[in-house]
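C-alpha cells as discussed.
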C-alpha cells in the first residue's frame, strides 16, 4: 500500500480521471490518504478521516512512507481555525490554507507557526458558533471550504472542527446518531435531513435555536425549520422536505 498527503490548500477529488470530471469532494491541506490505484496522471485515493474515495491529480499530492502515514494518523488532529491563514514551510515558502486545514500534519511546516488552532473535543454549543462563520459562503458541489461548500461538506467540516467525525455525504451522515421524533426534542447542533421525490436523502443542515436552521443552499444561509421542512424566508416557500432529525452528540 502507498500513502499520500495534500501539500496545497485545496485539491479537487474527482469522480473520474479528468479535469472535466465531476468534483465529488476536496482534499484539504495536510489531509492524508491511502493510494488505491495509480495511473500516469491520476491516482485513486481513500481519505483517512472519512474513507471517501476519488481521483486526485498526481501533481497535487506528496507521497509519504507507511511509517509516516501511521504516525500522522495517530497524532492528535490540529486544524486551522482561521477562515484563511498563511503558513510558512521549512523551505521558507508560504501556503494559504483555509479553516479545517490539518496543520498537525507538519511535515512541510516550521516547528512553530502563528495561526488560530482548533483541537480536541469541544462543547456541542460551539457547533452553531462555528457554522455562523460560514454565512454567505457560496454553494459548491463537492466543496469543503469557505471559498465554496456543499451541504454535507458544511456539516462535516463544522463537526470536524469540534472534534467529531461525520461521513461525507448527506445520505451517509443520516446513518449516524440517534433519531429524534420531533423538532422540539432537538438541540442546537443537531442535524436535520431532507429527501427528494424518490425518497433519497439529498440535503442536510444544522439546527439552531428557535426553529431556525443553517445550511448550504445557493449559499450558507439561515432559514426556518418546521415539521414540513425548510421554509425559505426570502421566497416564502418550502424548499426542502424534512425526512429525519438526528442527534449525533
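Sequence:
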Amino acid at each position: 500500500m502507498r500513502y499520500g498527503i495534500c501539500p496545497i490548500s485545496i485539491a479537487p477529488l474527482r469522480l473520474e480521471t479528468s479535469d472535466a470530471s465531476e468534483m465529488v469532494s476536496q482534499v484539504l491541506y495536510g489531509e492524508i490518504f491511502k493510494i488505491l490505484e495509480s495511473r500516469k496522471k491520476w491516482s485513486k485515493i481513500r481519505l483517512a478521516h472519512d474513507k471517501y474515495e476519488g481521483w486526485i491529480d498526481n501533481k497535487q499530492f506528496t507521497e509519504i512512507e507507511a511509517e509516516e502515514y501511521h504516525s500522522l494518523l495517530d497524532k492528535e488532529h490540529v486544524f486551522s481555525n482561521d477562515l484563511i491563514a498563511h503558513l510558512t514551510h521549512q523551505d521558507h515558502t508560504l501556503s494559504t490554507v483555509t479553516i479545517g486545514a490539518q496543520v498537525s500534519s507538519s511535515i512541510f511546516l516550521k516547528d512553530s507557526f502563528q495561526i488560530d488552532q482548533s483541537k480536541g473535543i469541544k462543547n456541542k454549543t460551539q457547533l452553531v458558533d462555528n457554522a455562523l462563520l460560514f454565512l454567505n459562503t457560496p454553494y459548491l458541489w463537492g466543496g469543503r471550504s469557505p471559498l465554496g461548500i456543499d451541504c454535507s461538506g458544511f456539516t462535516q467540516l463544522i463537526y470536524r472542527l469540534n472534534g467529531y467525525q461525520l461521513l461525507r455525504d448527506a445520505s451517509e451522515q443520516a446513518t449516524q446518531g440517534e433519531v429524534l421524533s420531533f423538532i422540539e426534542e432537538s438541540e442546537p447542533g443537531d442535524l436535520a435531513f431532507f429527501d427528494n421525490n424518490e425518497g433519497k436523502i439529498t440535503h442536510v443542515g444544522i439546527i439552531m435555536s428557535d426553529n431556525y436552521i443553517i445550511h448550504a443552499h445557493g449559499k450558507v444561509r439561515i432559514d426556518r425549520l418546521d415539521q414540513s421542512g425548510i421554509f425559505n424566508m426570502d421566497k416564502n416557500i418550502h424548499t426542502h422536505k424534512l425526512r429525519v432529525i438526528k442527534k449525533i452528540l
